[in-house]
Amino acid sequence: MSEGRAGAGAGFAAIRQAIVDDPGNAAMGARGYLPLYAAGPRARVAVVGQAPGRRAQESNTAWNDASGKRLFEWLGVTEREFRDPDRFALLPMDFYYPGKGPTGDLPPRKAFAARWHPPLLRLMPGIRLTVLIGGYAQAYYLGPRRRRNLTETVRAFRDYSPDFIPVAHPSPLNFRWHARNPWFAEELLPFLRQRVAAALG
After folding, report:
1. How far apart are CA 77 and CA 57, in angstroms?
2. How far apart are CA 63 and CA 46, in angstroms?
3. In the Cβ-directed half-sphere of 43, how many Cα atoms lie within 13 Å?
4. Cα 136 from Cα 92, distance rounded (Å)
5. Could you give the domains of the chain?
């Protein structure tokens, strides 16, 4: 292992331990949860989602459901490629399952990404593309550049290239949204696959 790669590895390990030791995450640690994300010094594509679901958290495997299978197809990669930290960094807006709310899972904690994404991204200077899944990721990374709502933001995907591509959530439960927005499959997905292939290449 090269000196630079070894140094980056130590940096990643230190950040992971700092996340575990952060008092703000003590309740998660008490449940036996570990921070669920993936990052490597050679990563080329960052995938930013919302937060792990209960199944992902308890299995310690991100995107291990039907949404994940659909996401692999959207990106044009195999699951093995997706889980290679030298290709993809998986950085949800919160690295812990936030718990259940009245109408579904609670949202990611507001300050989490601002605290932990920057130091991780500094160790991944080769990131060429960031895929923003859902409204929370788009609000954080696009800020005032995002449109009035998720649909309009995703529809304007070309405006955020080459750095970002905003997408809807790949959950099968979003079938009504996809039926109303056929341009997503017809226009955005080919563009996304092309950009992912170029970033990985």
Report:
1. 23
2. 14
3. 28
4. 10
5. 3-200 (3.40.470.10)
DSSP per-residue letters across 15-83: HHHHHHH-GGGHHHHHTT-----B--TT--EEEE-S---HHHHHHT-TT-SHHHHHHHHHHT--HHHHT
Give tens-digit pLDDT for 54-106.
999 999 999 999 999 999 999 999 999 999 999 999 999 999 999 988 877 89
| 10 Ramachandran zone, left/alpha/beta (phi>0; psi -120 to 50) | alpha
- For 116, counting Cβ atoms within 10 Å of its Cβ (0-12 exposed, 13-18 middle, 19+ buried), the class is buried
SS3 string, 121-159, reads HHCCCCCCEEEEECHHHHHHHHHHHCCCCHHHHHHCHHH
Main-chain phi, psi angles of 162, to 5 degrees: -95, -5
Whether this model's pTM surpasses 0.90: yes
pLDDT digits (tens, 9 = 90+) for 129-171: 999 999 999 999 999 999 999 999 999 999 999 999 999 999 9
Q: How many angstroms separate the CA atoms of 53 and 67, rounded?
A: 11
Q: For residue 94, which amino acid is it?
A: D
